[in-house]
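Let's inspect a concrete specimen:
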Amino acid sequence: MTKLSEDDLAAVSSLRSAVMRLSRRLRHQRVDESLSPTEMSVLGTLARCGSATPGELARKEHVQPPSMTRIVAMLEGKGLVRREPHPEDRRQVVVSQTEQAEAMLAESRRKRNVWLAQLAEGLTDEEWATLRDAAPVLEKLAHL
């Protein structure tokens, strides 16, 4: 990696701060306040990646397997996930989201999109163009 200039370092700091503030504000737009951010994240991972074992979910969510076991049990108790026998390894289970979880996530995305669109109404055409250009780059950073 090349050495960053002072301007680059300042931009990185500004980006980090802005992303964190925006993320906090977006988290407050949740549909179901009874779910923790981690529980919502697990449901989002299941929505994006499909069914997974608790161990796979733990790796993807960067939590310890015993913690994921508790999270899955809480989500199952709320009717948001179901556990089924693993098709190849009877010692394992596969976790998948329920239709109730799909509907809740869809409503949550809709609510957050509406909120963000209303917030962005104050942007100029040039700022909108910059934001459209930046979105794929931010998406790439989020998945590196």
User: Anything to note?
Assistant: The beta strands are 81-85, 93-97. The chain has one domain: 26-142. The first strand starts at residue 81 and ends at 85. DSSP finds six helices and two strands in the chain.
